[in-house]
Amino acid sequence: MAILEIKKFNEKVLRRRAEEVKEINDEIRKLVLDMEETMRANNGVGLAAPQVGVSKRVIVLESGALINPYLVRRGGAKLFDEEGCLSFPGIYINIKRHNKIKIEAMDVEGKEVEFEAEGLPARILQHEIDHIDGIPFFNRLGLWDKIKFKLRHLSLKF
Ligand code: ZN
Question: Where along the chain do its domains lie?
């Protein structure tokens, strides 16, 4: 296993829609193990493959890895909470997200899984699925907050 370098700020891989995983082979299994180690080494609660420079639809959470995760339903109230991101170190912003979601995905053995999540796990899943769709978290800010965010972090060249 290896701790991988985390891509940051305006790297292109963070802005690209990641590709579906066609087959869970040794390469994907190794990617998952390395991502889990990288997430833990950085005290993260989730990590998406584009964040380590791999444009594939793979995410890892404390509860395990999901391959080709798909948000089949979003519901509940949309709530604000503070989020951080390993690709945007030191930046914490309030983002509005759905409180309840339903996910379909594959686990690392290739078994189809389907489950509901609520509260913080739902928030983390939406954040990570945004990553594999090439959407950085500040894109979820409202228009005015986005302008303020860009002014404040102008030096990062978004
Ligand atoms: Zn993130």
Answer: 12-153
